[in-house]
Amino acid sequence: MKFWDTSAVLPLLVEEVSSSAHRAIYSEDPVVAVWALTRTEATSALQRRVRSGDLERHDLPKAMVRLRDLEEQWIEVDALDVVRHRADRLLAVHPLSVADALQLAAALVLAGERPQGWTLLTCDARLSAAAVAEGFDVPAAA
């Protein structure tokens, strides 16, 4: 099982430079763990891409079906109080956005606060650096 940040889920939904690498990782281990708000973040990102013209409106329904299919199988970390508390600490020590701090906090909660041996997938450089500093394995392809 790997923890997937929203930025790593998106290449499974729409074609991106890292899509083939992410599909390969998913094929090897289709057990996906995510933060409870990942679906909402992914929906926001897809809608933002439609508004900006980076995603054709007619491609949105296919991406949303892929998202729903993933959501039916993934494991959500939804321990809000614990994740929020952990995110507060992460914000004090890493230059993260609130959303990224919540993602990393959820991954830490999932790993039982022992991230060694756990993989976190992200396409975000700051989150990647913070995850490595916290002890997660973060593949370069992600």
What would you note in describing this structure?
The chain is α/β, with parallel strands linked by helices. It has one domain (2-134): 5'-nuclease (Rossmann fold), CATH 3.40.50. The chain has seven helices and four strands. It has a four-stranded parallel beta sheet with strand order 3-2-1-4, with helices on both faces. Helix 1 (6-13) packs across helix 3 (38-52). The model has no long low-confidence stretch (mean pLDDT 96).
Report strand %: 5-15%
What is the global morphology?
globular
Strand count, sense and barrel status of the largest sheet are: 4 strands, parallel
| Total tally of structural domains | 1
The radius of gyration is: 14 Å
Helicity level: 55-70%
H/E element sequence: EHHEHHEHHEH
Strand order of the largest sheet: 3-2-1-4
Under CATH, the topology is which? Answer: Rossmann fold
Overall average pLDDT = 96
CATH class descriptor name: Alpha Beta
Total DSSP helices: 7
Distance between the termini: 15 Å
Low-confidence stretches: none
Number of separate strands? 4
CATH architecture: 3-Layer(aba) Sandwich
CATH superfamily: 5'-nuclease
Structural class, please? Answer: alpha/beta
